[in-house]
Amino acid sequence: xxxxxxxxxxxxxxxxxxxxxxxxxxxxxxxxxxxxxxxxxxxxxxxxxxxxxxxxxxxxxxxxxxxxxxxxxxxxxxxxxxxxxxxxxxxxxxxxxxxxxxxxxxxxxxxxxxxxxxxxxxxxxxxxxxxxxxxxxxxxxxxxxxxxxxxxxxxxxxxxxxxxxxxxxxxxxxxxxxxxxxxxxxxxxxxxxxxxxxxxxxxxxxxxxxxxxxxxxxxxxxxxxxxxxxxxxxxxxxxxxxxxxxxxxxxxxxxxxxxxxxxxxxxxxxxxxxxxxxxxxxxxxxxxxxxxxxxxxxxxxxxxxxxxxxxxxxxxxxxxxxxxxxxxxxxxxxxxxxxxxxxxxxxxxxxxxxxxxxxxxxxxxxxxxxxxxxxxxxxxxxxxxxxxx
Length: 389
Known about the structure:
Shape: elongated
Strand content: 15-25%
Number of domains: 2
Mean pLDDT: 93
Number of helices: 10
CATH topology of the largest domain: Rossmann fold
Number of strands: 14
Radius of gyration: 23 Å
Strand order of the largest sheet: 2-3-1-4-7-6-5
Order of helices and strands: EHEEHEHEHEEHEHHEHEEHEHEE
């Protein structure tokens, strides 16, 4: 009988996405799921580690903790790293890199902490084999994650490699693309039923529409990736990975997804990205302003990621948000709309009362993600849901 080893694992994400990531992990079969700050810890075997990288839509990285230790100074830090049996996790032919986050009086510079750890690993290999592995900060075969908090050092193997938001489909972005992980979380948080239409009236590079199509068709976001870091580990089980990929079951129905943008050039970029994601046949692209756009749908969910105002004058951004509000009232009645923006003052120009408010981060920007019920009829005809604080 095969002995299945269960690992303690960590999924990294953006602040505010921890609950929805925990829900994804639970549905995937993870146990002992615990929410943290920008992370969710859980337990699972090799199959779950592989599935987490392939299936999770709201995770950035999947880490496999190796060891931890308190240290008092840089010398203890170096000795701690040199004492780890790195030959179990990599060999001389593997290039490696160290990703370090430091919040400590011992290290005021994360780069120095990474350099010292690198020196310790190289010295261990040189002493043992009289050769050293190469450091490659751009495309390493083995990526080591180091988290330093005060005097506590936590060392993990990064099983993902490139962050998991890099699905492999976006070759054009139009300047300010929405992160794929955030886009997926916005859709999952909206409560959208994939059997109903999904509308992105200001689509940009198409990320929201593409992620919606992936969700509706049950296409794992990692299915398009060429590789993961765990495939370079000595204990990588290729047969198990192939079995997981071969076991993916796509949904059979055709979702109704609409994507619109005022720029014809941007729409062409979105189409190209959708083709790369193998979902272009499920998205109906359109080229109009949001005030003119009237999709052939009487129900569904609208999600908008409008400009936040960094490149526009205050009166221009206020006018844009006012036009968005008018378009929603006139052209999308009977639907539910969600808008993400860091500009809370501009959001008030929408002219609608949100029934729900969430706080999310887009890059380093704190954003409000507001949900609106677009009534079909007059306000008095409906009992308005209480707004969330």
